[in-house]
Design brief:
The structure holds 2 protein chains of 2 kinds. Chain A contains 20 helices and 29 strands. In chain A, the strands form 6 sheets. In chain A, strands 14-15-16-17-21-20-19-18 form an 8-stranded mixed β-sheet. In chain A, strands 1, 2, 26, 27 and 28 form a 5-stranded antiparallel β-sheet that branches. In chain A, β14 and β15 (164-173) form a beta hairpin. Chain A is elongated. Chain B is globular and about 75 Å long. Classes of the chains: A alpha+beta, B mainly beta. Chain A binds chain B through residues 679, 682-683, 685-686, 689, 697, 700, 704-716, and chain B through 1-11, 361-363, 366-373, 375, 378-379, 606, 622, 625-626, 642, 644, 646, 661, 667, 669, 673, 682-686. β29 of chain A pairs antiparallel with β1 of chain B, so a sheet runs across the interface.
């Protein structure tokens, strides 16, 4: 599980960081020591674990460092560039940068890259790359121009691939982005055009990259707040040609879309990236760790004093400017459990909704479907975390007054405005007030039914039945099944009488009016063509030592059923209700209830509806028992227990009626048969248990050694 | 350190008997436990739960009730209709009194400890007066219809509650008449059972009677009105035992399903003075019936058919997180049931009513650590010796040469001569044992098998010279004047010159066999001795105590050795002191004088006195062999305690010769397999 530890400030004295922040933080040849180059004239060597500087060097007044200092891992010396062209190389013992080795080059340097295992590489602003030694041998050598006019290097990074350095740099020209890959073992340079896709207008604000064996995975943070991934092959098929690479969406809206500055990202490991930036337009800047595999926010840390939009990651430390201070936040990613990987989002979900364990399909989750859902939810969390005391009563008051007189459309607009504002601690009571106000007006003038506003309010996830008692009654009155379904899903405290009233409506509403309603169908999957891989072998008879107990025990009822085998087959395959009604009934199955209070209300349901519901439940049961795990397909299906409980409840409440109805007879017989089979299974299991225990004993005996043995023991 | 061939013996078919009663004595912090075979054991809870005394069982004496009276006198009563008082000093039965009421099912001592009440098969409740020497029948209470299965005194001593079949009676002690009769519902889960047996009652000072019965109920009755106040249905099977704490703020019940429930008197709401009994904690440490429970101030104690004695500390009552805060499960006796003849490689197993002699097998193969060697000869069961009479065997011993076997019951001492003629063994009883050799608490042969030492229960020690087929009484060491404490442990030096004997509390006495006089007495220590042995050559006496301390005392110098002083100064490793079971056997390596071999039920240890002692920072037990560490590191980390935990539960371990060990294990699974099946609980369905 990825976690950010308590951060600390590296330097007590504010760095002379200019408006553009630091030039860079680079590793030195000793672990735990880092070279920090500020925007002006100074390079400081820090020991991070001690939180103190070990050395500091400055260039003369008038000179400006233009490129972050790096360490030459082969010699242990430090290299810095000032005034674009002048190289300075020094070691720990040197005090004055003026007196150290100096080399003036013929072209302007963009960056010096230094990485363990190779000599430092110098990237010139014109795109040419040279090894340091070759450059020092002949400082005034001519440097060719690689990139075209008006193309500007935006970002660069170096990797070691199979012990050879590979350098990538990104250029921009008139809103188009190009990636250049420079290989040093084959001395090839490949150029790629980054195709931005639909987000053509967006500007890339941050880059990061990691390397796989064959690809460089370039992560880009666009101005729309999303992170895109581009895979660039290291070994191009046709190195000479300019090629195009497409980027794909990796994470949606990790930072606010219109953040102008202070946005950066860096790849932490295979599955984790760190993002610096404000998660919401109005919020403060945040450092957040995202799991790209599960698309979840793992952890985040607020940086109230703002950052410079720069982020470095070395070893286990994340470096960033927080206000005027260089801050180090250690990052740890321990082996994650499944629950941990699913992230914080899980905990924030209302427990009332998620009664059924929610399974993630690992194969498809990397795509977009889940991503969008999660990012939407994560926004909610982030917003919730930002609870501040600054209540804005005026907005709610304005809205409440609007409700009194304005039109539905106007109220909707006002409501949207209100919901966009930060949430206050008493948010749910305000929402409750708004709903009550709306319902009050609805009561006064029945033509006023602000359906959209109400739906929007329910979806804030803060309402409950007791906060707005009239809401479901109004919906029942209007037979608004969509709203009822939503309420059943969202409210944890619906009285049994209301649940039962909903059930009545769901069973009685005509198919035509159902077709028009927009109903959430996620709990219903297409049962008819669901092919189950784990389909259990269908075996109608079990022979016990050559005789069939079924025949003796289950006399006429069985025979009667067997007489019409075609009918039963038909009954099991087709769902007795249309999918939309099934979705509504599933909402009922998911709702919480207490048997005692529910039973009297169930008695009021008309007989044919009871039969229909029973048929549907029986159908669900049959579907359940088709696979080994006894579950239904779909995202949010009713569980076997829920189905069974409802069958029992319905029969308990209506047995006198059901027994009298001829249509129900066959259903009852099949239910009877299945109860019998359940009892059979239980008794068989009880019998088998003894055998199992014997088997277990045998197994133990196998592990046990003989009663007597001679062994060798050595004591140390 | 050393490589050994280990004879790993698992054929010791010992099954402890189930626990029938437990009685806790608050003053002395001792626990009396009676088992189904009539054995009574005394555990000292202050001394690390050491089983310091035991009274051997008797076939006809099924103990049904056990209680402590004033002055720490222990009484038991059983189905033979007798009330027995035990002599805790001499470790024998003081007297037995017939109550003349048929089998006795229950017994209770009055709160002042001066009166004894027994409930009999014929429905009578009999009151006995406890006199300093004996008990005296006083009178009968009103006779009831059926047997009295449980009794409890009101703390004031004025009333008594008696549980019978289907009803509870409340007696007025003064008049002896039944004041109330409270009928218990026979209904069990809606089904009417034939009878409802009241297995236990407890009378609280506020007049509440708590009853537990065979229908799985715990019921609270108001004894003033005779009405049912509250009912807890806690089990599908019998609730068999109940014990209340002295403060009456908590009690414990045990069920036939092996569950122990803790009930506590808890305030209804916070800050309210109104309190009610709430079932707080269930414990499932048993697999079988929990026949008996006790409630010490800091722990719940339970025992039952599965033979374990479980001491479950109440964490809220434990002040320091020390040794006493751990759950204890005592299964095996803290004494030796096995002796071995090194010369002939024989093992003598002691059971309740018979002895077995086994000859160990052999192998010619060699191997490396952990190997199981192929046997060239398997172990043989040579002898099965049944005792005569109903009494259990107290102790037994086989001589080192293998030609003598001695054992003792409460009333008789037996000595046998074994003759080996090739593969045939003949057994010859040595008849005409002298009259003073009636009952022995401990028997020991000298190393050369020419002398027999017998610790009798009168505190005297007999020395007997053995000759071919006959014997001669040499001497009897009489106990010091004024003490009658029996000696439970004996050790003789390999050269035969010294004999050490220890009782349960006083120090260890060392006798000079040559001059037949007391040589010295090792100063007594707070904790009882669990094992004794005298080292060869040096004649150092090694003593293990129940608090896991080990002392080494030089007999010739009459003082503790330098090593012993060093280790006392430095202290034992904390893990060593936290071990659960006492050391039950100590032996020595004939060629390595610096080594002491000792074991408890879960480990075997060789102490090498030449190596530095471990401190609390060093790893006491390292099961892994050193891999490629350099010798320097090995030498630096090596310490005196070489521990092996391979063999467990380890009942006996001894050195047969320089390179051979014998280890007798008794796996718990094998014991469970021989117990009656537990109450079956359905796993599937309803």
């Amino acid at each position: 599980m990825a976690a950010l530890e308590e951060g600390f400030t590296l330097s007590a004295v504010p760095l002379g960081a200019g408006p553009h922040g630091l030039l860079g933080v680079e590793q030195s040849d000793k672990t735990d020591q880092f070279l920090v180059t500020d925007g002006g004239r100074t390079v400081i060597l820090y020991k991070v674990s001690d939180q103190k500087p070990l050395g500091s060097w400055s260039v003369k007044q008038g000179q400006v460092i233009t490129c972050p200092a790096v360490c030459n891992f082969q010699t242990g010396e430090y290299i810095v560039v000032h005034d674009n062209k002048v190289l300075r190389i020094w070691s720990n013992e040197d005090v004055n940068l003026d007196k150290v080795f100096k080399a003036t080059l013929s072209a302007e340097i963009y960056r010096i890259h230094s990485i363990q295992g190779t000599e430092p590489l110098v990237l010139f602003k014109e795109g040419a790359v040279r090894g340091l030694e070759a450059l020092l041998a002949e400082p005034q050598q001519k440097i060719e121009t690689v990139i075209s006019d008006e193309e500007v290097i935006k970002w660069t990074k170096i990797f070691m691939v199979y012990k050879h350095p590979v350098l990538i740099f990104i250029t921009e020209k008139h809103g188009d982005y190009f990636a250049y890959i420079q290989m040093f073992n084959s001395r090839t340079l490949s150029k790629y055009t980054l195709v931005l896709g639909q987000e053509e207008k967006s500007v890339i604000q941050g880059f990061s990259a990691s390397v796989d064996r064959k690809f460089i995975s370039l992560m880009t943070l666009s101005s729309d707040g999303c992170i895109y991934e581009t895979l660039i092959p290291i070994h191009p098929r046709e190195p000479e040609k300019s090629q195009r690479v497409v980027r794909s969406l990796l994470l949606k809206t990790v930072v606010s879309g219109n953040a102008r500055s202070g946005v950066a990202l860096t790849v932490l490991d295979h599955d984790h990236i760190a993002v610096l930036g404000p998660p919401l337009p109005a919020s403060k800047e945040c450092l957040s760790i995202w799991n790209t595999k599960f698309q979840t926010l793992q952890t985040s840390r607020e940086l109230p004093q703002g950052t410079s939009g720069q982020l470095w990651y070395y070893g286990e430390n994340l470096f960033m400017l927080h206000g005027k201070f260089l801050t180090v936040i250690p990052y740890k990613c321990e082996v994650s459990s499944l629950a941990g990987a699913l992230g914080k989002l899980k905990h924030s979900q209302d427990p009332g909704i998620q009664t059924v364990p929610h399974f993630v399909n690992w194969e498809t989750s990397r795509g977009y479907g889940l991503g969008s859902q999660n990012s939407e939810q994560s926004k909610r969390i982030l917003r919730r975390r930002k609870i501040e005391v600054s209540v804005q009563p005026s907005a709610s008051k304005q809205l409440l007054s609007a409700i009194k007189k304005d039109s539905e459309k106007h109220i909707e607009v006002e409501l949207c405005k209100f919901l966009a504002i930060k949430r206050t601690p008493d948010f749910h009571t305000i929402i409750g007030d708004i709903v009550l106000e709306l319902l009050g007006r609805h009561k006064a003038e029945p033509s006023f039914y602000p359906r959209n506003s109400l739906m929007q309010l329910i979806q804030t996830h803060v309402l409950s039945y007791s906060l707005c008692p009239g809401l479901m009654e109004a919906a029942l009155e209007k037979a608004d099944v969509q709203m009822l379904q939503l309420c059943l899903r969202q409210f944890p405290d619906i009285p049994e009488s209301v649940t039962c009233a909903c059930l009545k409506i769901f069973l009685s509403i005509s198919d035509d009016s159902l077709q028009e309603a927009e109903i959430n169908m996620e709990s219903v999957s297409d049962y008819s063509d669901s092919v189950q891989e784990e389909k259990m072998e269908e075996q109608t008879e079990i022979l016990h030592n050559g005789f069939n107990p079924e025949e003796e025990n289950c006399g006429n009822c069985d025979r009667e059923l067997n007489e019409k085998p075609q009918d039963t087959a038909e009954e099991t395959t087709s769902c007795p209700v249309i999918p939309k009604r099934a979705a509504l009934l599933n909402a009922i199955l998911h709702s919480a209830y207490s048997e005692m209070f529910l039973l009297p209300h169930l008695k009021d349901i008309p007989a044919q509806h009871v039969t229909l519901f029973l048929q549907y439940l029986y159908f669900l049961y049959l579907k359940c028992s088709e696979n080994a795990t006894m579950t239904l397909p779909g995202l949010h299906p009713p569980t076997l227990n829920q189905i069974m409980d409802w069958i029992c409840l319905l029969l308990d409440a209506n047995f006198t009626v059901v027994v009298m109805i001829p249509e129900a007879k066959r259903l009852l017989l099949s239910l009877y048969k299945f109860v019998k089979s359940q009892i059979c299974i239980c008794s068989e299991l009880n019998k088998i248990e003894v055998s199992f225990r014997e088997l277990q004993k045998l197994n133990q005996e196998k592990n046990n050694r003989e009663l007597y043995s001679i062994e060798v023991l050595e004591l140390f | 350190m050393g490589e050994f061939k280990v004879h790993r013996v698992r054929f010791f078919n010992y099954v402890p008997s189930g626990i029938r009663c437990v009685a806790y004595n608050n003053q002395s912090n001792r626990l009396a436990v009676s088992r189904t075979d009539g054995t009574v054991e005394i555990y000292n809870l202050s001394a690390n739960y050491f089983q310091e005394k035991f009274f051997p069982g008797h076939e006809s004496r099924a103990t049904e009730a056990l209680c402590w009276a004033k002055g720490q006198r222990l009484f038991s009563a059983g189905l033979n209709g007798e009330i027995i008082e035990y002599d805790l000093q001499a470790l024998n039965i003081k007297y037995a009194v017939d109550a003349f009421g048929g089998p006795i099912w229950s017994m209770a001592v009055s709160p002042h400890g001066s009166q004894l009440l027994v409930g009999c098969e014929d429905g009578s409740v009999k009151l006995f007066q406890i006199t300093p020497e004996k008990i005296q029948f006083e009178r009968n209470f009103d006779r009831q219809k059926s047997r009295i299965l449980s009794l409890s005194w009101h703390p004031s001593g004025t009333h008594v509650a008696a549980g019978s079949i289907d009803y509870i009676s409340v007696f007025d002690v003064k008049s002896g008449s039944a004041v109330h009769k409270m009928l218990v519902d026979r209904q069990y889960m809606g089904v009417s059972k034939r009878k409802c047996i009241i297995w236990g009652v407890a009378f609280l000072s506020d007049g509440t009677v708590i009853s537990v019965d065979s229908a799985g109920k715990v019921q609270f009755w108001d004894s003033a009105t005779g009405t049912l106040v509250k009912n807890h249905l806690i089990a599908n099977a019998d609730v068999q035992s109940i014990a209340v704490s002295d403060q009456e703020d908590s009690f414990v019940v045990g069920t036939a399903e092996g569950t122990v429930f803790h009930f506590q008197l808890v305030s209804v709401t916070s800050n309210s003075s109104e309190k009610q009994w709430v079932r707080t904690k269930p414990f499932q440490h048993h697999t079988h019936d929990v026949r008996a429970v006790a409630h010490s101030p800091t722990a719940l104690i339970s025992g039952g058919t599965d033979t374990h004695l479980v001491i479950r500390p109440l964490m809220e009552k434990v002040e320091v997180k020390n040794y006493d805060a751990a759950l204890r499960k005592i299964t095996f006796p803290h004494r030796r049931l096995i002796s071995c003849s090194k010369k002939r490689q024989l093992l003598l197993f002691q059971f309740a009513h018979h002895l077995e002699v086994w000859r160990l097998g052999s192998t010619v193969a060699t191997g490396k650590n952990g190997d199981t060697l192929p046997l060239s000869k398997n172990a043989d069961h040579l002898l099965h010796l049944k005792t005569k009479g109903p009494e259990n065997i107290i102790c037994s011993c086989i001589s080192p040469c293998g030609s003598w076997i001695a054992y003792s019951t409460t009333s008789r001492f037996f000595l046998y001569r074994l003759n080996y003629e090739r593969d045939n063994i003949s057994l010859q009883r040595v008849s005409k044992m002298p009259a003073f050799l009636r009952s022995a608490l401990q028997i020991l042969f000298s190393e050369d098998s020419t002398k027999l030492f017998v610790a009798s229960n009168q505190g005297s020690l007999h020395v007997i010279r053995l000759m071919e087929g006959s014997f001669k009484h040499l001497h009897t060491f009489q106990p010091q004047s004024g003490t009658v404490e029996s000696m439970c442990l004996l050790a003789v030096s390999p050269d035969g010159n010294w004999l050490a004997a220890s009782g349960t509390s006083a120090g260890v006495h060392v006798y000079n066999i040559k001059h037949l006089k007391l040589h010295c007495t090792v100063p007594s220590y707070n904790f009882p001795v669990t094992a004794l042995a005298i080292a060869p050559n040096t004649n150092n006496l090694v003593i293990a105590h129940s608090d896991q301390q080990v002392f080494e005392y030089s007999i010739p110098d009459k003082q503790y050795t330098e090593w012993s002083r060093t280790i006392q100064k430095q202290g034992f490793h904390y893990l060593w002191l936290q071990r659960d079971t006492p050391i039950t056997h100590i032996s020595f390596h004939p060629k390595r004088p610096m080594h002491i071999l000792l074991h408890d039920a879960y480990m075997f240890c060789i102490i090498d006195k030449s190596l530095p002692l471990p401190n609390d920072k060093t790893l006491l037990y390292n099961p892994l062999p050193p891999t490629n560490e350099s010798d320097v590191i090995r030498r630096r980390t090596a310490h005196a305690f070489k521990i092996s935990k391979i063999y467990k539960p380890l009942l006996f371990m001894d050195l047969l010769d320089e390179r051979t060990l014998v280890a007798v294990e008794r796996p718990l699974d094998d014991i469970i397999a021989q117990l009656p099946p537990p109450i079956k609980k359905k796993k599937f369905g309803t």
